[in-house]
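We store chain and fold; thus.
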Amino acid sequence: MTPADRITIGGEWNVHRLGFGALHMSGPGIWGPPADLTAAHAVLRRALELGVELIDTADTYGESEVVIAHALHPYPFGLLVATKGGLVREGPEIGEFTPWPRHGTPEQLRRACESSLRRLRLDCIELYQLHSPDPKVPLEESLGALTELQSEGKVRHLGISNVTPDELDLALGCAEIVSVQNAYSVANRENEAVLERCERDGLAFIVWHPLGDGQLPLGAPLLREIAERHGATPSQVALAWLLQHSGQIVAIPGTSSITHLEENMGGAGLKLEADDIAQLDALA
């Protein structure tokens, strides 16, 4: 592993830039416990064996936080467990998409954080992220609640998720933000301006949906062609492109399958050629 494969978050957490998103460590519809708890534990433990040093979850991801604690607590030295608050759920996701209402009041964020502390079996969450700005609550109020939790020692570092460039600029004026988590992939560059601000300010840009969300099927001819040249898979090419696109990117693909996990982690070792990168860049 080279220094370029790693990033320092918050001035102290030096982690591999290919992490693990724990959305799928939950039940059907991202609700309740996973159908096979033993298998979920095995995926998490295998992730650490393969070099994962950042696991990202949220209070709204079913029982993901509970499953992480069951599988990995006491957490090994060097593992950064990050979570989020600021959305609410009333039931499982139905169909392709069920909106998750935003709830960024100081009272709700405190409840969410303290619940996450209990579920993760932690005294302090090392990276706590506002899951999304709430249009009904001034961003300054939401972040003010998080800075209070920080001053109480319940949170060490703060991040923000699903933000526009203007919201990020406002957040940086309200709190010491160390990371941003937005959607981004070879097929979806809508958050390029947010990535550029992260590069400017030295913030980690944690990417959810790093394999896209159907915008560019992994069976697309260009991805298949590049994958075949490298003896890799299209997923590995998509992840390798992200890691080579910017040194501030941390990709967090998620899966409930050890086979898919091992495939994804193989993307960290794939080094694309300049021509490959140029072709993929041109997809934007």
